[in-house]
Amino acid sequence: MPTYAYECTKCRRKFEIDQKISDPPRKRCPHCRGKVFRVISGGGGVILRGNGFYATDYRSEDYKKKAAADNGSISPASEKEKKNKAA
User: Fold this and answer.
1) Spans of all domains in the chain
2) SS3 helix, strand, coil % of the chain, rounded to 5?
3) Contact 83/74 with Cβ under 8 angstroms?
């Protein structure tokens, strides 16, 4: 359920309310019963920290092979393939 921020035009208090998207907007301040308006907020941001997800985490094997060939290095996946073929 989204959180909506409101500000009272009379007492200038700001408050937030969890409402359904289908609920009508609040019209009155719960503190002084003055008129309120909905404040546009940035919403909740997503913060990824530590060893999170990266664009390269879910690359296809074909892409990894081509990237390794371009870099002139051998990826860990191709090392495993060589060991499996040798066995």
Assistant:
1) 3-39, 56-87
2) 25, 20, 55
3) no
